[in-house]
Amino acid sequence: MTHDRLDLVSKLYQPSGWPRVLQAAEGDSSDAPLVVDLDPTTFCDLACPECISGKLLNQGRFTPERLAALAEELVSMSVRAVVLIGGGEPLAHRGTRRVLQILGEAGLAVGVVTNGTMIDKNLDELARYASWVRVSMDAGTSETYGLFRPDRKGRSVFDKVVANMRLLAEAKTGALGYSFLVMTRQEPDGRTVTNHTEVLRAAELAHDIGCDYFETKAMFDEEHHVIQVSESILDSVDTQLAEAARLESDTFQLINSSTLTSLRRHTGPVQPKDYHRCKIAELRTLVTPSGVYICSYHRGNPLARIGDAVTDSLADIWKTSDRGIVDPSRDCRFHCARHRSNLELDGIAEGTGAVPPGEDYDPFI
Description:
Layout: H1 8-11, H2 18-25, E1 35-38, H3 64-76, E2 81-84, H4 96-105, E3 109-114, H5 123-129, E4 132-136, H6 142-148, H7 158-171, E5 175-182, E6 184-186, E7 192-194, H8 199-209, E8 213-218, H9 231-244, E9 253-256, H10 258-264, E10 284-288, E11 291-293, E12 305-307, H11 314-320, H12 328-331, H13 339-349
Parallel strand pairs: 1-2, 1-10, 2-3, 3-4, 4-5, 5-8, 8-9
Antiparallel strand pairs: 6-7, 10-11, 11-12
């Protein structure tokens, strides 16, 4: 049976996570999160002008010893899935390979969001233990990649990343994804640079590399509001995706993120919410060198910080923290990928939810 990897609502109805989902739905504190986003480091080897975490970069990392201990804590807390993400570039930390091993050998699902420049240095662990690896590419050619994803010397490392992805495509046991963020930028001289014309070319390259999926997304601003784009750009992206549909098969998917769907529906940059507690915060959290936060949307926000994983165990932080410090109606008026999941949890509490299915298929709720 094929499942939509972005259907986060359906993922709530999996047997192994159901007890904690019910706890969250009823408004109770969960015993532990089901999914943890983990930033091993805030350092990155690229200098992307549009980086949403730009102001948070290069401000610290876990020691290799603490990072390994954190991985052991996640196992002991019965966390089901961990996403190594950033912040910075997760594969830039020399302790990440050990984390992959600890989590993978304990049977946790592991996702990795990476710029791809260091896949080769972590190839064995990624191939063996990663449930999926998503590479942020945002281009179909080296020239455009250099405009939007330059290294610190302003160079394009596109060819190196593509070569690394080919290595992983040959060796992987999990899925490999090619991520394309549709971007447009006004240069100081008045020129407009954009990558949207390369969606088809990038999808074709993803297919040629041996990726399992190609994902298109819209940009966020620094406050996580979806940046609106012109109808002509949206039409161009849709036309290219329609042509790329010929590439689809049982082994290659085209995926549209909820941000692009939001643009197509003209819902605007604000996503109002009329509930005051994020129940998903009982099921997911973000652990970074600068603190533990309610979620990735609030990375670096001191008002959404619930602890310090550098000095305290995650289990202790979870037992003593108040995950209700964020009020979605006030603090989360941006586009949230888990808004519908929160509404579904309310439905479960009211008895209008779906019946749990009889299989586990994807713990990344």
